[in-house]
């Protein structure tokens, strides 16, 4: 360990917890505690149930700040902002919006005591809104995805180390944090995955386009990576036309949803062989065909009213298992990708059928989906029961509130 890292270890492991104890003591003696949630997009919003629970408690005042991610195109930022406004208006949430002309700091103006961020990364927002600017507050974080990776990239970023509370999904995630985080996971509370409450609620709306007959419903959810060396192996470019052709071939038996990662459109706009016009035309094709549709917002209702999914997206490796339906992971190097995951991620990926080429995809559609020949069904069910149900016989929201109320009430 270098001298610099040793000093950071002392800071994160001992000095920050000591400082935070003083902050907790001061906040505990306030008449009302200000809780602020930062929201980037509807698809990455994980705090709705917790926001509602906190809003109902007399000790807390909850406010949401809408801050679309600056790594997206201006068009997508505006779209994300409008969708969040509509979503929170419908839910009757208390929210504020950052205006481009605003030279102040809307988060500071809310005087947060507890501050929840949607992602652990820097450079998601303007510098004044980065979590590092609020590290003296009681920072909290729900993972925006059901985390599968291992290593310092996943568990040893600044927020992981100086946050007051990290609300993690399973004991396996705590174990990984204790291995990789500089602070040895001293700030972790295992409460379950936040979307579990919604998946397990039993209240789901049918969001699929009406058809003239009953058809199987398949989701295609590609990741945003279109450069083979970036994060994970790219599949979108070789699958783009293929999936449209498959949707046409099976139009009498299957309807398809195109559920792209929120960043995919922006990446296509920058690609030399695509650009904004071609990307828009492609997305419009999925919107307009009779047995296809585009979904770029919430996905829980979509998942729970589907029959199968084909994807290469990290978090969906876990989340789709709540549906109980068969799922295929696209990867020409599947074993290599599995080896890069943590223990939990490897377990989640092993519950997938594997698609390495067109033939595998066709076989999955025809045999597993259409003929209901699904030999992995029981294994998926056991995985859900062992790892995806929130602990302590409570909901994720109840587990999180228990931590807050034990601390402040």
Describe this structure in words.
- The protein has a seven-stranded parallel sheet with strand order 3-2-1-4-5-6-7, with helices on both faces.
- With 409 residues, it is of the alpha/beta class.
- It is built from 18 helices and 13 strands.
- It is globular, with a radius of gyration of 22 Å.
- The mean pLDDT is 93.
- Helix 2 (48-56) crosses helix 18 (396-408).
- The chain starts with a helix and ends with a helix.
Short description:
This protein is α/β, with parallel strands linked by helices and 409 residues long. The chain has 18 helices and 13 strands. It has helices at 3-28, 48-56, 74-90, 106-109, 152-155, 158-162, 171-180, 196-199, 236-249, 264-270, 275-288, 300-304, 316-319, 334-339, 343-349, 358-370, 377-388, 396-408; strands at 33-39, 60-66, 95-97, 114-117, 138-141, 165-168, 188-190, 216-221, 254-258, 292-294, 308-311, 327-330, 353-355.
Please state roughly what percent of the residues sit in beta strands, choosing from under 5%, 5-15%, 15-25%, 25-35%, 35-45% or over 45%: 5-15%
What can be said about the biggest beta sheet?
Answer: 7 strands, parallel
Determine the number of helices (DSSP H or I, runs of at least 4 residues): 18
What is the number of strand segments? 13
- DSSP helix fraction: 40-55%
Structural class: alpha/beta
Shape: globular
> Measured on Cα atoms, how large is the radius of gyration?
22 Å
Q: Mean pLDDT, rounded to whole units? A: 93
Strand order of the main beta sheet, please? 3-2-1-4-5-6-7
| Separation, N- and C-terminal Cα atoms | 40 Å
Low-confidence stretches: none
């Amino acid at each position: 360990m270098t001298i610099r890292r040793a000093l950071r270890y002392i800071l994160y492991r001992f000095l920050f917890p000591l400082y935070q104890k003083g902050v907790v003591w001061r906040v505990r003696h306030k008449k009302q505690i200000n809780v602020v949630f930062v929201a980037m997009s509807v698809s990455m919003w994980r705090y709705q149930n917790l926001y509602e629970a906190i809003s109902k408690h007399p000790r807390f005042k909850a406010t949401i700040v809408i801050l679309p991610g600056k790594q997206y195109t201006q068009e997508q930022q505006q779209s994300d902002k409008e969708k969040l406004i509509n979503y929170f208006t419908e839910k009757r949430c208390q929210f504020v919006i950052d205006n481009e002309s605003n030279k102040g700091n809307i988060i500071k103006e809310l005087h947060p005591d507890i501050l929840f961020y949607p992602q652990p990364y820097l450079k998601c927002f303007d510098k004044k809104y980065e979590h590092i600017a609020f590290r003296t507050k009681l920072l909290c974080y729900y993972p925006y995805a059901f985390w599968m990776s291992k290593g310092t990239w996943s568990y040893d970023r600044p927020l992981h180390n100086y946050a007051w509370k990290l609300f993690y999904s399973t004991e396996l995630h705590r174990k990984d944090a204790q291995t990789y985080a500089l602070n040895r996971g001293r700030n972790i509370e295992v409460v379950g995955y936040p979307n579990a409450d919604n998946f397990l609620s039993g209240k789901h709306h049918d969001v699929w386009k009406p058809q003239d007959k009953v058809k199987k419903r398949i989701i295609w959810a590609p990741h945003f990576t279109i450069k083979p060396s970036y994060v994970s192996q790219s599949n979108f470019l070789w699958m783009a036309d293929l999936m449209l052709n498959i949707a046409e071939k099976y139009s009498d038996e299957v309807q398809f949803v195109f559920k792209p990662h929120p960043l995919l459109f922006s990446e296509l706009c920058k690609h030399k062989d695509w650009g904004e016009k071609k990307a828009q035309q492609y997305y419009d094709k999925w919107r307009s065909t009779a047995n296809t549709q585009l979904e770029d917002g919430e996905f829980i209702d979509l998942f729970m009213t589907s029959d199968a999914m084909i994807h290469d997206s990290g978090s969906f490796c876990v989340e789709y298992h709540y549906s109980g339906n068969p799922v295929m992971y696209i990867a020409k190097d599947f074993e290599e990708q599995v080896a890069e995951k943590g223990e939990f991620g490897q377990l989640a990926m092993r519950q997938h059928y594997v698609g390495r080429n067109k033939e595998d995809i066709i076989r999955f559609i025809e045999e597993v989906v259409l003929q209901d020949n699904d030999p992995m069904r029981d294994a998926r069910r056991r995985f859900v029961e062992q790892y995806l149900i929130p602990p302590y016989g409570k909901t994720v929201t109840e587990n999180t509130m228990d931590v807050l109320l034990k601390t402040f009430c």
